[in-house]
Structure prediction request, 185 residues.
Amino acid sequence: MRISSSLVRSCPAAAAVALPLALAAPAAAGPGITVSTTGSTVSVTTTACAQLSGSWGTASLLGEGQTDFAQGRQVALSGTASDQSAAWSGITPGTYTVVVLCSDNSTAGTQTVIVSAPPAPSPPASAPAVPAPSASASPRGVLGGMGGAVKDYGTATLAAGGALVGAGIIAAAWFLRRRAKPYRF
Prediction:
């Protein structure tokens, strides 16, 4: 298949014309409304309403089965000439329709939104369980000066432990001495 060189040369020109038209298309469609949900709060923003007699307009949240603007939960729009908004809190999970009616009785927009159930709360982090002291524990608590032992073992036990430590030191010294003179058997 062969591509004509005139077609290749005309593609950048066509893209240069089409790109600004594509970017301008959303602006030509009108401002409308933007609806968002955060947890159990539904909010709406618009730039379509003008202030008339101190009012920007009213937004209505219609639940399932509600079809008329007056049936929904109505909230007055607040804001500035460049941005008006309204919000509803404590909304239960379900599908809702948001309708914004400006103060001049024109509809700024209608949009459906789904409010989902909040995620299940995670169990609180707890500290590791500390075992209760047993009946055999010393009434004085842990004996820090005795190696952290709870029970006092007595002189005989300490003497036996000291003898084992001493024997270990003597064995280590003998091993190191033998290692320093490899020619001896």
Observations:
- The beta strands are 33-38, 41-46, 57-62, 73-76, 78-80, 83-88, 94-102, 107-115.
- Residues 13-30 have pLDDT under 50 and may be disordered.
- The first helix runs from residue 5 to 28.
